[in-house]
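Subject: Sanity check before I submit

Could someone independently write out the structure tokens for this chain? I want to compare against mine line by line before I put it in a report. The sequence has 251 residues.
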Amino acid sequence: MTLFEILLLGVAGFAAGLLNAVAGGGTFLSLPALIYVGVPPVSANATATLTALPGYLSSAWGFRHHMRREGALSLRAIAGVGMIGAGLGAVLLIITPGDTFLWVVPWLLVLATVLFALGPYLLGQIQQRGLGSAGVAVSAATILAVSIYGGYFNGGLGIMLLAAFGFIGYVNLHGMNGLKNVLSAVVSLVSAITFIAAGMIAWEPALVMAVSATIGGYIGANVSRRIVRTDLLRYFVTAVGVMMAVVFFLR
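---
Independent answer below. Compare away.
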């Protein structure tokens, strides 16, 4: 790698870790950066999932005092279901041909961007209408579906998890953010192990991005509890998501 590529991956990894902790959407930065430096798309997606892991862990540590059980499922049950879903999603990615993935990616980016942009509204509607009363079976099915998505494509996973937690009975936003990062770490870990076994990780870019994402995730966890205008950050991430979707559609 050239010095410019190392700097690009470092900045993208730091920003992705920061965004994932504060508002989500870090994959909108990490995936294009990996593809730009020459990593094939499917491998870039797998590598982006791996590099997000330390950022999720460090930001989850920042929220460790806020996490409590609020729904029908225990935290261990949520993690267990997440592991199953992540494995299924990762296997689905492995068997997806590269050309098919390139066709799917822009649509996934559009879906993730729309969900990210509407995230606060959707979460507010779920809580306002009192939908957060799902039983064990519905709660498990909800977490499983989102985890399968996360195992296949990490983009937009955070906001989908927040909406899922609101649906199954969570109301404490800081606790939801912490659990979001924990489950994102679980999904990323299971997916990454599967991708490593399949030989899909680009290790040099992954190392650079993982280190910077760890720093960004820890800083983001501390910043997110103090930030007031998260809407401005959300507008920025949404704009990045739209631009990335357009770029992939034009490829």
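---
OP: Matches mine. For the report I'm noting this point. The CA atoms of residues 12 and 30 lie 6 Å apart.
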